[in-house]
Amino acid sequence: MPSHSSAPIRVVVAKPGLDGHDRGAKVIARALRDAGIEVIYTGLHQTPRQIVDTAIQEDADGIGLSVLSGAHMTLFAEVLRLLKEQEADDITIFGGGIIPDSDIPPLLDLGVAALFTPGTPTKDITDWVHLHVGGAREPAGAQS
To answer: CA–CA separation, 58 vs 41, rounded Å?
Structure first.
C-alpha cells in the first residue's frame, strides 16, 4: 500500500510494548522529517495491532520500530504477522534499539528490512529510507 510516486515517503515511527524511553525514536523521527519524509509518530506503549492499524490508516510506506525493552523478537514478528494478515505486507519494516548482534540475522530472515543499532548516524538511516522505502522517491524539493 505504498503511496503514489509523486507523494513524499510516509513512515510511522513507533514504540511498541512497555518500553518507556522514546528519546531515540524522537531523534529518528525528527531526522526523517528534516530529510523530507512524512513522519507519523505514535508515541509510547503501542501494541503491534495499533501500529499496523496506524500504518494502514495513514497509507504509510514504512514502519520504523524502536525497541529497547528486549522484546524485539516478539514485537517485530507480531507486526510482520499482522501486516501479512491485513494484506499490507508491502509496508517496509525497519527498526533499531538495543538488539544483540546474534538476533539481527533472524530478524532480517523474518522480513525486517534493516536494523540500526545505537551509534548509527542519522544520515545513514535517512539515506537508507530514501533508497529502500516507498519506491525510492526523491526527498521533497529535490531536483531531478
So the answer is: 11
